[in-house]
Amino acid sequence: MSFLLSIFKPIAYISLPVILARTAISSSPMGLYYFRRGLYLGCMTAVATFGIVVAATMSATGYRYDVNWVIARTFYALAGTVLNIKVEVEGEEHLLTKPAVLLSNHQSMLDILFVGRLMPKKTSIMAKKSLQYTPLGPFMIMSGAVFIDRGNNARAVRSLEAAGQLMKNRKISLWMYPEGTRHMSKEPELLPFKKGAFHLALQSGIPIVPIITENYWRIYQEGFFGTGVVKIRVLPPIPTEGLTANDVPELAERVRDQMLDALRDISVKVEPASAEEPRDLPPPTTSSDPALFSSPSNTKEEGTFSPHDVNPEQVLEARTSSVMSIASSDSNHREQRSEPSENGTETEEDEGMILVGRPT
């Protein structure tokens, strides 16, 4: 009996704080969000640490381009199990197309989990330069990753040109995010595509394989981190042979349309957001409604405002003009942020974004 107590007593001492902490966290939605986010980043750090040993060993034995496949599958197995998030893939056979430019939509840092599920063997990646200073950095360097300086346009273009040459020489594929940055919304949407990936595909004369991850807003968003199944659809290859640089805009638009249609098809349907008037303003009313402009009392204190002092038509005109001005300003702001770059680079910071991968 004393032997059993010596075993279970330490376990009880360790388990009790964990159970109490989990109970407390579960009672707070925001606490649960940060707890699960911490688990995700913890899994990433653990696998990256493990990846240093794997990368060093496999690079020394001639399996350098299998490093990312091992790390990716390990991360998906660990993080997917811990967070209870599963992936269903449709059209996975199209990933065997090689070489190819693999284009995927980009929603959040959770995309790394889905890359882990899909990345084929003999794969390397191209990523923004800042990622080499994250937990992912060491094994990315030893696995032959090429880093892009997204803050320097000329260097980014040269990196893409070098990637194209590598594709021709070794017949490898590239995984890219044509939106250029992360984008999450309640409704399934895509940002305008940047053109770098399409110029690269045309220069190399290789097909494009679109990969669409459903809108997982219901599982992950700011302040919420849930569980569930995420659907991914891989579309058939789109040939680029015979096309020229003049065909890039039309090709980019066609690929985006196909991906957007697939995104909306596999995503959970949501009701489109309806425009609502500001809550602190009542709906516009004409002067035919006497109740709005009538005073509850015939007395008026000095320095107070009385509805009788205002022309109802002037109020309605001013209110309408204000709303239209705000809408116009917001529309101009969105257009400025959504303007694509012809060379496929992005200068804004985007933590956790893997730009390009190279499957066999």
Automatic annotation (TrEMBL):
Q: Which SMART domains match?
A: PlsC (SM00563)
Keywords recorded for this protein, A-Z: Acyltransferase, Lipid biosynthesis, Lipid metabolism, Membrane, Phospholipid biosynthesis, Phospholipid metabolism, Transferase, Transmembrane, Transmembrane helix
Indicate whether Manganese appears among the record's keywords: no
* Keyword hit for Acyltransferase: yes
| Transmembrane feature ranges | 6-25, 37-58
Q: Biased-composition ranges for Basic and acidic residues? A: 331-340
Matching SUPFAM superfamilies:
Glycerol-3-phosphate (1)-acyltransferase (SSF69593)
Q: What is its EC number?
A: 2.3.1.51
Catalytic activity line of the entry: a 1-acyl-sn-glycero-3-phosphate + an acyl-CoA = a 1,2-diacyl-sn-glycero-3-phosphate + CoA
**Family label:** Belongs to the 1-acyl-sn-glycerol-3-phosphate acyltransferase family.
Q: Which NCBIfam families match?
A: AGP_acyltrn (TIGR00530)
Query: Domain note for this entry?
Result: The HXXXXD motif is essential for acyltransferase activity and may constitute the binding site for the phosphate moiety of the glycerol-3-phosphate.
Question: What is this protein's name?
Answer: 1-acyl-sn-glycerol-3-phosphate acyltransferase
Species the sequence originates in: Lentinula lateritia
